[in-house]
Amino acid sequence: MSAARSEERARYKTSLEDSARWDGFAFRPGDIVISTPSKSGTTWTQMICALLVLQTPDLPAPLTALSPWLDIRVRPLQQVRDQLEAQRHRRFIKTHTPLDGLPWQRDVAYLVVGRDPRDIAVSLRHQGANLDRERIRRLTGEAASAAPDPRLGPSERDWLLGWMSLDVPPHENLDTLRGVIWQLGIAWSRRDEPNVVLLHYADLARDLEGEMRGLAARLGIAVPEERWPALVEAATFERMRERAADRVPDERLGILKDPGQFFRSGSSGEWRRFLTDEDLARYDARIASLAPPALAHWLHHGFRKGTDLRI
After folding, report:
1. Strand ranges (DSSP E) for 82-185?
2. Quick one: which of 111, 144, 198, 265 is 20 to 30 A from 295 by CA?
3. What are phi and psi of 302, to 5 degrees?
């Protein structure tokens, strides 16, 4: 059995997810855990892992079946574990739980994906409006909330400013600026560990093939040279959007009002339309209070082309 960290795991629980669902999970050597903040490139990274592991653009099943979301509460836990136990390919498992809330195994790879937090926020607002929260409540058994969903009311600017300043504990809500910095800061502090791989949305957008090749090398996956063009093409935003029904994390349970809206644009920088110079100064001050300069630089820019993924 592989060595595990001795410290106690943190617990993260929301209306949709619960990190306690990892308790007692039986890892296999070589498992890949994709641990990301929401809307930072999770589905993109799952797709890349599927292509590298299976080495075909014609996936044999929907992405959610190939890469189950273990800690989502809308599916019975045993059902998800049985699904993972039945898999015979190298497993790649989705989670939004930070690394300190996951069981730690030396022979398991942990992939963490960063993105400009402002782009995450814009995507979160649109994703929140696309969630069928009544359906989620029925599936999880949560009581209905009397408060209206704030994502459906305020303007884009008001919502972004609220997301920026909200100061609830990350263990209760990771979908805030504080929560994003918390989650990616934990990964940043472990970036030199051999089984931790940091990726960034901007790097994937700038050089998809280079990042895929680098990830394959880190995971010890050999890909025949002639297969690369088809695999890289299948990982582009355009190809994934064409197959949205088989790619989106709807779990086939109707938790998205419109699955086709999941791949909304894939672009970056939309926040510039909503935030003033004064707003951005407030944002910079908030970032400076939450993240050291090196982490803040990586969050907003990724790694420079050609550098090692772990630096």
Report:
1. 92-95, 109-114
2. 265
3. 75, -170
**Cα dihedral 96, 101, 103, 109 in deg (nearest 10):** 40
Distance, CA of 105 to CA of 82 (rounded, Å) = 20
- pLDDT-based confidence at residue 268 (cuts at 50, 70, 90): confident
The model's pTM is: 0.85
DSSP designation for 103? -
Write 228-236 long-range contacts (CB < 8 A, 24+). Answer: 230/57, 231/51, 231/52, 231/55, 231/56, 231/57, 232/208, 233/57, 234/47, 234/51, 234/57, 235/44, 235/47, 235/48, 235/51, 235/208, 236/208
Q: Are 65 and 137 in contact (CB under 8 A)?
A: no
Residue 37 amino acid letter: P
Catalytic residue among 96, 297, 300, 301: 96
CATH superfamily for domain 19-301 = P-loop containing nucleotide triphosphate hydrolases (3.40.50.300)
Contact 146, 298 (CB under 8 A): no
Tell me: the pLDDT tens digits for 9-55? 999 998 788 999 999 999 999 999 999 998 899 989 999 999 999 99
State the burial class of residue 119 (Cβ atoms within 10 Å of its Cβ: 0-12, 13-18, 19+).
buried
DSSP 6: -
The answer to whether 10 and 101 are in contact (CB under 8 A) is yes
Phi/psi of residue 93, nearest 5 degrees: -110, 135
The yes-or-no answer on residue 96 being catalytic is yes
